[in-house]
């Protein structure tokens, strides 16, 4: 992830605006003036190689790609790639291409339930995820997990 996103996430964990059983405790122990240095360090690490979706079917990946590119207008779900695709995206939005399928699905479920916060734009994701059904979440997670994190729209 980029430095701006990582710093905002660490601050959200430390301030209790983003819940995590894993990150909350370490983030609260970091002195606030060290957060930017940590974000810079982790942002400089190489992006992991492309990951496979595991047991996801080609149909699930294709359905996820359709939602990512077109959204589900009748349900008020925007196209994911409008914010999470390409190099011109807002740096405060995370890079989700190539992340683990289970992680992506759990984050979408938390947003849909209104339990995921963290950044100044998290309300956008809560609104976008409201119209997603479980199958949509599974399909999106399958699709994004197959993408190359360095080239977010290619497999």
Note down, in words, how this protein is organized.
- With about 160 residues, the chain is mainly alpha-helical.
- Helices cover about 50% and strands about 0% of the residues.
- The protein is built from 8 helices and no strands.
- The protein has helices at about 5-15, 25-30, 35-45, 60-70, 80-85, 100-110, 120-130, 135-145.
- The longest helix is centred in the middle third of the chain and has 13 residues, at about 60-70.
- The two termini are about 20 Å apart.
- The model has no long low-confidence stretch (mean pLDDT about 85).
Please name the defining characteristics of this protein.
155 residues; mainly alpha; 50% helix; globular
> Helix and strand string, N-terminal first?
HHHHHHHH
The total strand number stands at 0
- Euclidean distance between termini CA atoms: 19 Å
- Count of alpha/pi helices: 8
Q: Structural class of the secondary structure composition? A: mainly alpha
**Contiguous runs where pLDDT drops below 50 for at least 5 residues:** none
Strand content: under 5%
Helix content: 40-55%
Mean pLDDT: 85
The Cα radius of gyration reads: 15 Å
* Main sheet makeup: none
Overall 3D geometry? globular
